[in-house]
């Protein structure tokens, strides 16, 4: 969903898709999304309307957790804005989940109703609250995109009406003129820039490449992204608009430069959110599976080995139950750091479940995979993670499988999974290798 968001799928389509996914997981439930508008009113955004009129405003909102219809009147007694909405949920027929953002702001409400009255099951809490977290993140990402678009329009208006980052360059690449704003951007004085050439502020370029580009610059102009180096060595991501002009009877290139470092940084954050597990810093499950498909195809083309390791932390549930989920998060984060330390640059690691991790080792056969698995299992057993006054120690089990003729992603992962289950069944804290599937 985050990847579709970064690719530009409309927000209303994303919201409807989330509701469809919820109804696939919980077929007896129907969802409605109400979003807060600029005036603080809740407006229908996706799904069927709620019975009667929707909540008029969010003033005084104090709800911080999911509540079911039967508990709503009591739990919301001090949350006056929810009384009318809560009253329309009959006991044990609906749940109300606020869409709370990372900064605590409430963007709206996910209202869930059962098609037929029955007691709500506890198993529904996790998917509903996960969906609410996802919806809040989608809304925040959409707001960032919206802000970036407005900011980009504002910057374009400035560039059209002012000399922001303006320079005039001759066909040899030398600065003839430079605006004060460009001097401030690059950290040079006017007299310094006028003694310099374009390739001195564009890392990776050469006099020949710059002069060739200037020679093909047309009167209609072009816009492109590049990198500038400041006087103090800082690299700036910039958007440059160039146009060929005739000045004093000779051709020159007029250039307008704008710093887009902040916009590019935000884009990278959005892209990372769609591919990275934020707790461990490793790839998330969809990205890991896509990388496995790619590595499998490369291994076939190059007739090269490919090994897969599936790792599971032993008795991890006991860590959460005894020390709390914060301690569990510390353990998972430490494991992510450990894996990044031992893997090669070409290896791929991802979190595919709660405490389950998958490692792809392109070009590595069984012996190399076993050597790495032994190192990983030893390094994990030596970890000591401090959580409050407690020092936590953990062990792990690893299943290993190598690519064989006829394998696809499904069969290779299935064999690795069986190896992992065999390691756990044999007493944990060990490595098990499985060969090809039986005929």
From TrEMBL:
It is an enzyme of class 2 (transferase). Residues 151-193 form the PAS domain. It comes from the Bacteria. Its EC number is 2.7.7.65. Transmembrane segments: none annotated. Residues 304-436 form the GGDEF domain. PROSITE patterns: GGDEF, PAS. InterPro entries: Diguanylate_Cyclase, GAF-like_dom_sf, GGDEF_dom, Nucleotide_cyclase, PAS, PAS-like_dom_sf, PAS_fold, Rev_trsase/Diguanyl_cyclase. It catalyses: 2 GTP = 3',3'-c-di-GMP + 2 diphosphate. NCBIfam families: GGDEF, sensory_box. This is diguanylate cyclase. It comes from Vogesella fluminis.
């Amino acid at each position: 969903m985050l990847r579709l968001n970064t690719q530009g799928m409309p927000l209303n389509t994303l919201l409807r898709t989330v509701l469809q996914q919820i109804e696939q997981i919980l077929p007896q439930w129907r969802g409605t999304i109400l979003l807060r508008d600029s005036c603080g009113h809740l407006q229908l955004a996706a799904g069927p309307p709620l019975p009667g009129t929707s909540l008029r405003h969010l003033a005084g909102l104090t709800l911080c957790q999911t509540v079911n219809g039967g508990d709503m009147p009591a739990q919301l007694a001090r949350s006056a804005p929810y009384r009318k909405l809560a009253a329309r949920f009959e006991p044990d027929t609906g749940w109300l989940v606020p869409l709370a953002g990372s900064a605590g702001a409430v963007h709206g409400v996910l209202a869930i109703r059962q098609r037929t009255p029955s007691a709500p099951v506890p198993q529904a809490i996790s998917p509903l609250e996960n969906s609410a977290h996802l919806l809040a993140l989608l809304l925040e990402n959409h707001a960032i995109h919206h802000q970036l678009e407005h900011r980009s329009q504002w910057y374009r208006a400035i560039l059209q009406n002012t000399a922001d980052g303006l320079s005039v360059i001759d066909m040899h690449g030398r600065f003839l003129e430079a605006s004060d704003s460009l001097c401030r951007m690059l950290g040079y004085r006017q007299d310094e820039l006028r003694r310099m050439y374009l390739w001195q502020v564009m890392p990776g370029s050469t006099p020949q490449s710059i002069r060739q580009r200037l020679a093909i610059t047309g009167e209609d102009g072009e816009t492109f992204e590049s990198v500038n180096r400041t006087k103090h060595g800082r690299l700036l991501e910039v958007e440059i608009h160039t146009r060929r002009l005739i000045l004093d009877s000779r051709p020159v290139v007029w250039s307008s430069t704008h710093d887009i470092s902040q916009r590019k940084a935000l884009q990278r954050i959005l892209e990372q959110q769609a591919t990275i597990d934020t707790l461990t810093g490793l790839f998330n499950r969809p990205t890991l599976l896509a990388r496995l498909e790619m590595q499998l195809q490369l291994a076939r083309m190059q007739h090269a080995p490919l090994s897969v390791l599936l790792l599971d932390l032993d008795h991890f549930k006991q860590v959460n139950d005894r020390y709390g989920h914060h301690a569990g998060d510390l353990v998972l984060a430490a494991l992510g750091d450990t894996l990044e330390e031992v893997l090669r640059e070409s290896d791929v690691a991802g979190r595919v479940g709660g405490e389950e991790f998958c490692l792809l080792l392109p070009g590595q056969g069984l012996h190399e995979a076993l050597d790495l698995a032994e190192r990983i299992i030893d390094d994990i057993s030596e970890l000591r993670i401090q959580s409050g006054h407690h020092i936590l120690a953990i062990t792990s089990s690893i299943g290993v499988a190598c690519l064989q003729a006829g394998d696809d992603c499904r069969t290779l992962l299935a064999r690795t999974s069986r190896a992992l289950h065999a390691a756990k069944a044999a007493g944990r804290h060990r490595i098990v290798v499985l060969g090809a599937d039986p005929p």
